[in-house]
Amino acid sequence: MIKINSNYRKLQSSYLFVEIAKRVAAFQEANPATDIIKLGIGDVTRALPPSIVSAFEAGVQEMGQDESFRGYGPEQGYAFLREAIAENDYQSRSAQISADEIFVSDGAKCDTGNILEIFDHDIRIAVPDPVYPVYVDTSVMSGRTGTMQDGRYQGLTYLEGSPENGYVPMPTPDLRADIIFLCFPNNPTGAVATREQLAAWVDHAHKTGAIILFDAAYEAFIRNPDIPHSIYEIPGARDVAIEFRSFSKTAGFTGTRCAFTVVPSSLQGVDAEGNTVPLWELWNRRQSTKFNGVSYPVQKAAAAVYTEAGQREVRAQIDYYLENAAIIRSTLQDAGYSVTGGTDSPYIWTTVAGDSWDFFDRLLNEAGVVCTPGTGFGKAGSGCVRISAFNHREKVEEAMRRIRPVLG
Ligand code: MLT
């Protein structure tokens, strides 16, 4: 029989959101009359904004005529989109990123997992805890870890978030990692990192030679003007960081699929012979070989995000979710719970009494509301849950009415 990649056998039996979906489906089958309200997975619920739909439609129309039809596009993404990203997301914030350092893709989830391919097998990886599970699971799949012991994988370094550090773990002098995953605004805790905190990480990476993999998928939720949207707003970050962004939460693209990864041309690694190699070259080679780009109409739709109307519309959508987040935050706070997130993030993170899966089950059984148990995000998440603001206003309000008695 064929030998399998045994690293997969080290993984938890199912991906967090698959396990939640299974429990929800079982509950729904047993309680068909209950109108379950989902504040679990961070999936958008509002329709694509009108100017984005128009651009999408125009792209489809172009594909329907010989004169404007396009076959394979550039694997790195069309120039019109890469230029719009460079100008609006970076240069306008004094972050020196150029269009050719941007790689358009179908998701930040895929890219944060796939990026590990361009590094040596024996790299030391540090991940936050609580953590977006993809960083951990893809490290496991690629054989960079041992087995799980006491809730943590051997061989991974965990950067522990806690109420004491506001869920923003900072580098310690003894930290030795080649790859450091950071995510701000954070999934799952909703915490944001200040300029000084990010500068400390950039400084650490410069001193140790580490590469920061910075997941900024939720940057559009930042409303505090003092919080950086990109790690490249920090001087020196170009030489130590790769950044991941997505249109999923920014513009409602979870089902449409478009994201991008920034690999600055100044980032370098070393090969087995001691030669210096730009990481850009490796990622470009990887994408050209394994990826054929995002469809033309989708890239047209993504580019519309940067038009005046697009900016106005996506901002209004995010404001809507942020207002939901404020409702969730105040419900929890009024019930005496301490919360993180929900101001510059769609996620609200709170400590609950007892086990987080038990709390998840109680919320589901007694209120018909779905949250995400903190344990699913790592050991440091036990005793916490994440509530997502992605839903319609009336659903969020109804969910808060229902959970109030369960909160005690
Ligand atoms: C989440 O709920 O954490 C998100 O849906 C994750 C993702 O975007 O993949």
TrEMBL record:
Binding site for substrate: 15, 42, 109, 132, 187, 292, 386
Sites bearing N6-(pyridoxal phosphate)lysine, chain numbering: 249
Pathway: Amino-acid biosynthesis; L-lysine biosynthesis via DAP pathway; LL-2,6-diaminopimelate from (S)-tetrahydrodipicolinate (aminotransferase route): step 1/1
Biological-process GO terms, alphabetical: lysine biosynthetic process via diaminopimelate, diaminopimelate-aminotransferase pathway
Reaction it catalyzes: (2S,6S)-2,6-diaminopimelate + 2-oxoglutarate = (S)-2,3,4,5-tetrahydrodipicolinate + L-glutamate + H2O + H(+)
Assigned EC number: 2.6.1.83
Coiled coil (residue ranges): none
Enzyme class: transferase
Function in brief: Involved in the synthesis of meso-diaminopimelate (m-DAP or DL-DAP), required for both lysine and peptidoglycan biosynthesis. Catalyzes the direct conversion of tetrahydrodipicolinate to LL-diaminopimelate.
Oligomer status and interactors: Homodimer.
Name of the protein described by the UniProt record: LL-diaminopimelate aminotransferase
